[in-house]
Amino acid sequence: MSVRIDETDRKILRALQVDADRSLDEIAREVGSSKTPVWNRIRKMREAGIIGAQTVKLDAEALGFEACFFVLIRTSEHDANWQAAFLKALLDRAEVQEAHRLAGDIDYILKVRVQNARAYDVFYQALISEVKVHNVTALLSMEEIKSTTALPL
Fold first, then answer.
1. Which residues pair with 98 in a beta bridge?
2. Element (H or E) spanning 136, and its range?
3. pLDDT digit string, tens, across residues 68-90
4. How far apart are CA 104 and CA 93, in angstroms?
5. Domains identified in the chain and CATH numbers
6. How far apart are CA 93 and CA 55, in angstroms?
7. What is the four-CA torsion angle of 137, 140, 143, 145, rounded to 10 degrees?
8. How far apart, in Å, are the Cα atoms of 115 and each of 32, 45, 67, 119?
């Protein structure tokens, strides 16, 4: 389903990206509309897949997940069986917050959130026991400077 997005829709989406927990009345007031038209627009954007599942953003450090690693993976394997095993290994591990297949020298990059370096090693050992990789480089994030899921609407 294709939906055209106008400036009012963009205002609604910007407001939802800031805080999706606000009431329809607050969002309608912010975008200069009334509650029912805003709700109808949100519903249409959900049906079109523009708005996905709503979740809660947790504070990783407050919950003890103090280490964030970016894991660069090179592989010499590219067949369908290897890719299926690799995908399963990633999906089975809650520590993997993001995974991207890349163009260039590195095949994959993962964002892995764990309690500490020892927990990363447990993750790493489990991963390489399940799938063959040519080279793995782990980069520890020293400081998160910016993190957002908001799109520049």
1. 111
2. strand 135-140
3. 999 999 999 989 999 999 999 99
4. 25
5. 7-47 (1.10.10.10), 67-140 (3.30.70.920)
6. 19
7. 30
8. 44, 37, 6, 6
